[in-house]
Specification:
The protein has a single domain, classed as Isochorismatase-like (Rossmann fold, 3-Layer(aba) Sandwich), CATH 3.40.50. It has 193 residues and is an alpha/beta fold.
């Protein structure tokens, strides 16, 4: 899989609350960090944009169990849990896309209510590479919305991990992304020339 000149990388929700020790930890979620750092390096060296999405919830967000949602409180704006993983290689001026900012609205996708599709199109981007946390929720929904927005979309199979609320959720999510038209790649298969 070639990167090409009209490509961008989207790093989904690699935040403390989704990593081991966090409020909504993805098992071994921090293992994606060194892999994603390598993708970030590759894209940055080519002058290609790297977008970082984050859950950025207000207190009392509708997704929280206390409000009738299915998740424990997580990624509340300005908390340590909402910060990006400390080992994630953010550039000096990262492009950060905050989602889930409306207390009354769920937002699993980095495209939902953020204007990211328009921003990418203004940059002339046609191909997106997507990895991060968690495969079976925010990565999947970001990939599906990227496809629906008309982007060629590649799932980074070595740069994503699932939360697996139910056993098999991750493999189902990968199948769903591929059925919708997503490709997949890994660092090993990436053609960087």
């Amino acid at each position: 899989m070639k990167i090409g000149q009209r490509a961008a990388l989207i790093v989904v929700d690699v935040q403390n609350d989704f990593c081991p020790g966090g409020a909504l930890a993805v098992p071994e979620g921090d293992r994606v960090v060194p892999v994603l750092n390598e993708y970030i390096r590759i894209f940055s060296e080519r002058g290609l944009p790297v977008y970082f999405t984050r859950d950025w919830h207000p207190s009392g967000h509708i997704s929280f169990k206390e409000q009738g949602g299915i998740w424990p409180e997580h990624c509340i704006q300005g908390t340590k849990g909402s910060n990006f993983h400390p080992s994630l290689s953010l550039p000096e001026e990262p492009i950060i896309i905050s989602k889930g900012t409306d207390r009354m609205e769920e937002a699993y996708s980095g495209f939902q209510g953020t204007g990211m599709a328009e921003r990418l199109k203004r940059q002339g981007i046609r191909r997106l590479f997507v990895g991060g946390l968690a495969t079976d929720y925010c990565v999947k929904n970001t990939v599906l919305d990227a496809l629906a927005s008309g982007f060629e979309t590649i799932y980074l199979e070595d740069g994503a991990k699932g939360v697996e609320v139910k056993s098999g959720d991750t493999s189902k999510a990968v199948a769903e992304m591929k059925e919708a038209g997503a490709f997949s790649t890994s660092l090993k298969a990436l053609q960087t020339e």
